[in-house]
From TrEMBL:
This is Sugar phosphate isomerase/epimerase. Pfam families: AP_endonuc_2. InterPro entries: IolE/XylAMocC-like, Xyl_isomerase-like_sf, Xyl_isomerase-like_TIM-brl. Residues 23-252 form the Xylose isomerase-like TIM barrel domain. The keyword Isomerase applies. The keyword Methyltransferase does not apply. It comes from Geomicrobium halophilum. Keywords: Isomerase. It comes from the Bacteria. One of its GO terms (molecular function) is isomerase activity.
Length: 274
């Protein structure tokens, strides 16, 4: 089975959803992954397609023109003061555009609230044919594999899954062997990137790397093969933001090099696990 790749929006966040879709197609990707949920982060572009009707129309046209599929949308954060129902317009957009998955992460320390909110997200997404994929993030409240599995087991939802990000898995100091205990059906796609082997001491340095300076696949020190050879063959979403490289190369060439590095690495290090 041919390996499938998506261009994650964070890799070229300055590009609007329609622009990113055309870039992904020209660079040779199979899917695109979009961020139509505006989080209000410093410097973050607003691509809230539920509100930006013309941009949504252009995105739909780009998907139709290129034949690419929408793999997932993000980010349905769970945090204090956020009502999961606020994400439903984005779910509707994702379904309209043919999307499959919604990425979520947990930033509140209130476990009961987190579990209740995640359960509600799954219920809200279900009528739209969407799954909710929980990602643990080393700078968030749910920061490692054990924390994510705790939530997934507690909520026990059919349309819930686990989304592993290679950078986050490494920084959480999880062991690849622990992936053997995860139900295979919980894996639906994987965030593929690389980073230096040395784990930063500070949260600030880690945040800088994960948002602005990840490395091409195989360029860094993360033991990617040990992770990837333990999970089913699923789409690889390339989330490799590197501000300087993208500016120097242009987003399309940068996206192309991200994809080539991934293909080269997988060919040489990963066997089919389907």
């Amino acid at each position: 089975m041919a390996k499938k790749f998506s261009l994650a929006h964070l890799t070229a966040l300055e590009c609007s959803p329609p622009e990113l879709t055309y870039i992904a197609a020209r660079a040779g990707y199979d899917y695109v992954s979009l961020r139509p949920i505006y989080m209000g982060l410093p410097g973050e572009p607003n691509y809230a397609l539920a509100e930006k009707k013309e941009m949504k129309k252009q995105t739909k046209k780009a998907l139709n023109d290129t034949g690419l599929e929408l793999l997932d949308i993000e980010l349905a954060r769970i945090d204090n003061g956020i009502n999961p129902k606020d994400y439903e317009p984005a779910f509707e957009v994702a379904a309209e555009l043919g999307g499959r998955h919604v990425l979520s992460s947990i930033w509140t320390d209130d476990r009961s609230f987190a579990i209740e909110s995640f359960h509600e997200l799954c219920d809200l997404a279900n009528p739209y044919g969407l799954t909710i994929e929980l990602e643990f993030v080393p700078i968030a409240a749910v920061y490692d594999l054990a924390g994510a599995l705790d939530v997934l087991k507690a909520t026990n939802q059919q349309n819930a899954g686990l989304m592993i990000d290679a950078h986050h898995f490494s920084r959480s100091r999880d062991r690849a062997e622990d992936l053997d205990q995860v139900p295979k059906e919980w894996f639906r796609y994987f965030h593929l990137c690389d980073a230096p082997g040395k784990i930063p001491d500070s949260k600030e340095e880690m945040t800088h790397t994960l948002r602005e300076e990840r490395l091409y696949v195989g360029e860094g020190g993360i033991d990617l093969a040990n992770m990837l050879n333990r999970i089913p063959e699923i789409p690889y979403s390339l989330e490799i933001p590197h501000t300087k490289r993208a500016q120097e190369l242009g987003y399309e060439e940068f996206a192309r090099r991200c994809l080539q590095s991934a293909k080269d690495y997988l060919t040489n290090h990963v066997y089919s696990t389907s």
